[in-house]
Amino acid sequence: MSAGRWLQLVLVNLGRELRSNLLSVFGVAAGIGSLVFFVALGLGVGEVVKTRLFPADARFVEVIPPRVSVGIFGGAKLDDAAVERLRALPDVEAGYRKMTLRIPAISRYDGSFFGQRLRMGLEILAEGVDGGLIEADLTPGVRFDDPEGDEPIPALVSTRLLEIYNKSFARMRGLPSLSPPMLRGFEFPVELGRSYVTAQAAAGTPLRAQARLAGISERAMLQGITIPLETARRLNARYGEDARGYSALVLVARTPDRVPAVAQAVRDLGFEIDDSERVLAERVGAAVAITTAALALLSLLICGLSAVNISLSAGAAVRTRTREIGVLRAVGATAGDVRRLFLGEAAFIGLAGGVAGGGLAWAVAIGVDRAARSWLPDFPFKPDSFFAFPGWLLAGAVAAGVAAALLGAFVPAHRASKLDPARAIGG
């Protein structure tokens, strides 16, 4: 049977049993649509977790001093000598030092705050870093160096901290929402060596200074401000705190696939890896993946039921069209032609159901996103869309629809191909 004749017969047969075939298409579309919807939801939420809630560079390995002093190097301190050893490890492209500001600090702000009067005091946490770690996020033309004299201390804040402020704190306090361009160059007072929390301040006279925002960065300290490393070193030394030991060293692997080898080499030197945020991101991502998988299994069950429905419909069609099958065999159609005829009809049903299901899932997702924008509060890290529709997902939807239909029609098609022509014609 030629391809043209085969296609003509497939389309004629589909049109003859239009109502039954439309019900089969609906069943496939329901299963495929729910599958695509839930997988797209899982992909979208997972992307938010990875890129906004817990952003991390895949090449970064954050080294911290060991909590217990053991090993050949004593595990005592992450100092300059240790930094050089770690930077010299194979597959390490760069290393950026971090030093916690080990003295208390506060800020008492009393003045105009972007058009509103603000009086507020808060404890300040700070961390000094090498400028190379955050240079891409600095305001153009701003230097990230230890200031001279009475110059303000350059500081960066976390993009996540700004998100939390805008979507939570500012709304509850009636304060203005801020954007990164608005914050460029904003100054606020800092009192070093003084605390609202601890009973005893740092040894030495408290120092009043100004801090000036030099940028917003995903790599900045989440719960405080990020300042130049040499500023943290100078202030720690001024108040008699450790100014030589680093709180962390961020190693940059040459490629993401070399991260495990770099991490193992770090552990072999007696240091530890701070992967707490990455582990938390993986746990949240795993919870999302498990929920998505459970809902996807439910959708696959619906697809299975649609395959059973197609199988029953095809079986009924074989019984109804027994004489027609006999005539086809009598005029030269082979058993393979008959099998391909029934499978072709099922493939068209699956194709239509897959396309309709994918389109339905996309339309429902758009509706859900619009409803979320209208009805849900603007909470921190709220995405523009909760869904992600990569091309492979939509292509997979169509393929899954066709596969489900072919699976359901295989046994009836095989049975039709085995009918004896003489018996079929004779009834």
Automatic annotation (TrEMBL):
> What Pfam families has UniProt attached to this entry?
FtsX
Q: Which domain of life is it from?
A: Bacteria
Q: What is its main location?
A: membrane
Where in or outside the cell it occurs: the entry states: Cell membrane
UniProt GO MF annotations: transmembrane transporter activity
**Keyword match Transmembrane helix:** yes
| Transmembrane parts of this sequence | 21-45, 286-312, 346-366, 386-411
Q: What keyword terms does UniProt attach to this protein?
A: Cell membrane, Membrane, Transmembrane, Transmembrane helix
Question: What's an example GO cellular component term for this entry?
Answer: plasma membrane
Topology versus the membrane, per the UniProt entry? Multi-pass membrane protein
Where in the numbering of this chain does the ABC3 transporter permease C-terminal domain appear? 297-421
Family the UniProt entry places it in: Belongs to the ABC-4 integral membrane protein family.
Q: What is this protein called?
A: ABC transporter permease protein
